[in-house]
Description:
Layout: H1 2-6, E1 9-10, E2 21-22, H2 32-54, E3 60-65, H3 74-94, E4 102-106, E5 127-134
Parallel strand pairs: 3-4
Antiparallel strand pairs: 1-5, 2-5, 3-5
Amino acid sequence: LEQVADQFAWADADQDDLEAVYYAFGKTTADEEQAAKIAYNVEQAKKLIADARAEGSDAKLIVEGHACASAGTPEYNLAISEKRAQDVANRLVEAGLDRDAIKVVGRGNGMLVVTDGDREEQWPNRRVELHVLRA
């Protein structure tokens, strides 16, 4: 299993080029402040994908949605995390990224940044992260 895992690596693993996009409680559309982060991420993702492909990698942009654990069933949190990821993916495509280069993933509340607290304290969990995957 480790050998299989070693075949894949985040192209941006050692870089801080892509910014997380945060969402209000129960929302699946990014607000204006977060939309500015998405615009920034478009340019960074284009560069990272182009660089990875120039090195011979079949690069993909992974758009990974997350939810908090302060409310909702596991099914609800999985669905809302996927809708958040899709919101970002749609905006990336509208800004010129190739849809075939994007993979949308909903993680639900399985990868929490903040494990305790109420909905206000768990705001960092309501996010979309972007990573470039080299294969």
